[in-house]
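Appendix B, example 12.
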Amino acid sequence: MTNIPSPTGKKLIKALKHIGFEDVRMKGRHHFLRHPDGRCTVVPAHNGETIGKGLLSQILKDCELSKEELQKLL
């Protein structure tokens, strides 16, 4: 199992947009992202805060990505 550094919300959103996810809506600092094939997730983008490992693993599960795939995107 590889350890990846915890990205900030903005960096994670940028990586997800690179693979086809689009902003559907925002509520406060939470971005609701959806892929054309139906996958969707919510990413908080608080200034300067990193995503915790539990939330990051849930986002990866929602997006059907592995840690290795995310590490290549970042």
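The mean pLDDT is 89. Residues 9-73 form a domain with the Metal Transport, Frataxin; Chain A fold (CATH 3.30.920.30).
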